[in-house]
Amino acid sequence: MPGAWFETIFDERYPELFGPLEGNAEKEVEDILRLLAVRPRSVVEDLGCGRGRHAIPLARKGHRVTGVDLSEKMLGIARARARKEGVSVEWVREDMRVFRRPGAFDLCLSLFTSFGFFRDEENQVVLGNVGASLKEGGWLLLDLRNAGKGLSRLESWDQTLEVPSGKLRMAIRFNPRTRRATAKHVLTRQDGIRISSTFDVRLYSDRELEAMLRNAGMRVRNFFGSLSGDPFTGDSDRMVVVSVKE
């Protein structure tokens, strides 16, 4: 039986299907460190770290980083890159609904819409695990698609991009009843080969997230429209939620 989408999507196809949408990780790390005024040698959890795009630059800057991900293939890429660059990161293969390390981290990062994969009850468990894993006064930064823009007002969205390896078509369907977005990416390579993947994510409003974070022992300090600290509005593409453990 095939596994859930999040158990199969993060494989060797991922860089081609999603890489063109990713930002500059080095700049994003700089933006995060500046936005949160992160102290030197902080203990950082990168939850849903993938192939280490952010974990490795964070470690290179002297932070003690633990990268947590369910995909052994993504972690394999991350380990290889870290070895090549001579960077030390703790890589942990674990489900975010399970991983919990009480009072261990100064900061937890959940980037590039790595939250919302599961049912509401399970997504709350993820936040509970984060809250338990943060030190008192520790920070959580969630980087999510803004549910208030587009997808909550339009039921479908299609776009085709020219990317280095061919043409990438992205089709998103939003269900206003379940508030879940289902997206399919299809890459037609220059050699004619097609690869595809589908994912399904629950999109939360700012009010919903405030309540969930409060239930997890954290309080929202601010909403931003980008990792660089742009003001958050209903038209922002991203919703960056900064909260603190009380």
Integer tally of domains: 2
Structural class: alpha/beta
Overall 3D shape? globular
CATH architecture of the largest domain: 3-Layer(aba) Sandwich
Question: What are the low-pLDDT stretches, counting only 5+ consecutive residues below 50?
Answer: none
Question: Biggest sheet, strands in spatial order?
Answer: 3-2-1-4-5-11-10
Q: How many H/I helical runs?
A: 7
What proportion strand? 25-35%
What is the structure about, briefly put?
The chain has about 250 residues and is of the alpha/beta class. It is built from seven helices and eleven strands. The protein has two domains: about 5-145 and about 205-245, Vaccinia Virus protein VP39 (Rossmann fold, 3-Layer(aba) Sandwich), CATH 3.40.50; about 155-200.
How would you describe the overall organization of this protein?
By secondary structure, the protein is α/β, with parallel strands linked by helices. The protein has two domains: 5-146 and 204-245, Vaccinia Virus protein VP39 (Rossmann fold); 156-200. 26% of the residues lie in helices and 35% in strands. It contains seven helices and eleven strands. It has helices at residues 5-8, 14-18, 25-36, 55-60, 72-85, 120-133, 206-215, and strands at 43-47, 64-69, 90-93, 105-110, 134-145, 156-163, 166-175, 180-189, 194-202, 218-224, 238-245. The strands form two sheets. It has a seven-stranded mixed sheet, with helices on both faces. It has a four-stranded antiparallel sheet with strand order 6-7-8-9. Strand 8 (180-189) and strand 9 (194-202) form a beta hairpin. The termini are far apart. The model has no long low-confidence stretch (mean pLDDT 90).
